[in-house]
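Page 47, continued from p. 46.
Same chain as before, 393 aa.
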Amino acid sequence: MGDIRKKAMDNRTFRSDTVLSDVHLHCPNKRHLMVRLNAVGQPVFLSCFKLLWNTEDSASEQHVREATTEKEHQHRGVEGLCDKDGNNPKKERELNSEGVEALLDDDGDLEVVRRPQSASDLEAEDILRDRVYPVILMKGKEDAFEDEEQECTCSDVVKIEHTMATPLEDVGKQVWRAAFLLADYILFKRDMFRCCSVLELGGGTGITSVIMGTVARRVYCTDVGEDLLAMCEQNVALNKHLMEPGRGEIKVKELDWLKDEFCTDPEAPYSWSEEEIADLHEHCTVIMAADVFYDDDLTNALFRTLYRITHNLRNSCTVYLALEKRLNFTLRHMDVTCEAYSHFRNTLNDLENLQDRKMKYTVEPIKLDFCQFLIYERIEQLELWKIIAEHLT
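Result:
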């Protein structure tokens, strides 16, 4: 059985409906410990994410820059390895010996070298290509993982269990860039969030709630699906060392945006007690969500949930929404579009223009010029929005 599993891991393939987070492609050769299979048979990995507290220190800044450009230096050209300046020595040799005309056919068109289709073709052409994927350590090989963990002290490491590739309906089990962006903002503005009561919608693995738990008084981390919520609860337990005494209470709860009420069934796991609902309505002043805008129906449901909850809160509330604008080519438009993002922006505008004489919503983007405390690509498609929800009566 072990040999079969190892063979499957060495020859990973993904179905057409598989979604893979870019976070793990960013540092492709980083080691990840596979700790178990979840309830639906998906491999679960344990990763350590180091917090760069000394972001003003030049060494830390260099660390971020090196990690951000690591992927670029690992690329290989089809004709061979590139040097550190991105030049292709082999191609340069060909051009020097044969001249520019060697790249043109008889009609003067540019010759395009195609990538070989099989491993035998690769060997025949003597082309060097790297297989780029995370190194997977099976459970029972923790000693190999300990060296990496020992490089970081407990106070600056976030440990997260997650999957790496899932169907679309299970993307909450992965770690996404927008969650890191929101976590960065929390750490940058930690004095502002100190002692707050916070609700996270679509918490997924719980990494953003864990970061918020380092400063907030109480965090309700919510999502749907017993398997996902169990993973989130495990991640909360793995990071108890980050919480300050008397703070950082993180409660993992079910909250389905497609339903109008909290789950209060005492027999259901992760249900709410009446006391917890009352505490949320009485004290919550911050709501947050990261990378949950990829389906129009779910986007609509999220904004309905936002309106319902903010309407029931005693105090005014600030909502933080982090997302990544994803570009897709569509046959319908015959162009590159961002349909999910466009729907998000339209719905956001509708919320701001809402006139029900009960609530006022003020929307503004947040500039991404704050410090980076986690290693990831802060690409230009990342955005962070703030919504101030105020009662009019």
